[in-house]
Design brief:
The chain is α/β, with parallel strands linked by helices. α1 links the parallel β3 and β4. α2 packs across α3 and α7 packs across α8. The relative contact order is 0.16.
Length: about 300
């Protein structure tokens, strides 16, 4: 289980949840889940990415909880969810289904937002009956469905076998990240954020990423290296919006454009000039706004339809 490190003040300090619960996934793995906001409000489910935790969504949780029920959980091995020997896209899909079943009422539909590996979790679950029963709409932030290592531009080299091989070694490194130092902040900012990211944004991301145990980071790097969820994109048959930073080095815009071309119901691509991979932190108001738009347009209308059908 990771060390719980995050900033303690400012917009990226994690809010206190209304309640917490432990959800058991299909293979017995335990997941830490937080619920924020009024119980009867429209639900939003937030799924974080590789090396992150629920703390990554602090800005969105803080902004949405006045009038939404926000559900966030730690992916297995991240945050307060214990590590598991099962690291696969199937496990990610199982975990998301378990969280939806534990936190949403039968027939209740939510907007589901996934960042990076969280978006891959959504794609992995797209054909699952429980996901389809509970998903009103989806927001995919800074993610891709395949060729992650080959397309990464973390290393400033020409695309090809050498860059792919070196990138695989860098992203799959077992080296400890150590304390958050000025050098560590510079490295993380270069790899994952835009050049104009404010220091408090970099600080928040550095604390979250450095909290991830190196064994967990390494284990999930293999899953990302071999990722092929192109089929999951084609089966994501709910309204889906896509957000990406133009300077994302981990999942460059080529991935988002491929998603837009393959999604059955894409409702918009937003490419943010100068931003990197950590879009919910780098552009908190925009990402929160996209979630609100999806709730208003699709989740509320789905709830109204369900009420009428049940009348």
């Amino acid at each position: 289980m990771s060390r719980l490190l995050h900033v303690s003040s400012g917009p990226y300090a994690p809010p206190v949840p209304a309640r917490e619960l432990t959800v058991t996934s299909a293979d017995g793995s335990h997941l830490h889940v937080e619920v924020h906001g009024p119980e009867q409000a429209p639900p939003v489910v937030l799924v974080h990415g590789w090396t992150c935790s629920t703390a990554f969504w602090a800005a969105q949780i803080r902004a949405l909880t006045a009038d939404h029920r926000v559900i966030a959980y730690d992916q297995r091995g991240h945050g307060r969810s214990p590590a598991s020997p099962a690291c696969s896209t199937e496990a990610l899909a199982d975990d998301l289904e378990a969280v939806l079943a534990a936190t949403l009422a039968p027939g209740e539909r939510a907007v589901i937002a996934g960042h990076s590996m969280g978006g891959m979790t959504v794609m992995a679950a797209s054909a699952r009956p429980r996901f389809q029963a509970h998903a009103a709409a989806v927001l995919l932030c800074s993610t891709g469905s395949s060729r992650l290592v080959a397309e990464s531009t973390v290393l400033p080299l020409r695309a090809g076998r050498l860059r792919t091989a070196l990138t695989r070694r860098v992203l799959g490194s077992r080296a400890p990240l150590g304390p958050v130092t000025p050098l560590a902040r510079r490295i993380l900012k270069y790899a994952t954020m835009g050049a104009g990211s404010a220091p408090h944004m970099v600080e928040a991301c550095a604390h979250i990423v450095h909290a991830c145990p190196r064994k967990v980071r390494h284990a999930w790097s293999h899953v990302l290296d071999l990722l092929d969820l192109d089929h999951g994109v084609r089966e994501l048959a709910v309204p889906t919006a896509v957000v990406v930073g133009s300077h994302d080095r981990l999942t460059p815009p080529v991935h988002s454009r491929a998603l837009v071309a393959a999604l059955p119901q894409c409702v918009g691509l937003t490419e943010l000039p100068g931003l990197g991979h950590m879009t919910p932190v780098e552009a908190p108001e925009l990402v929160t706004g996209r979630i609100r738009e999806l709730v208003t347009t699709y989740a509320n209308s789905a709830a109204d339809t369900d009420v009428k059908e049940g009348a």
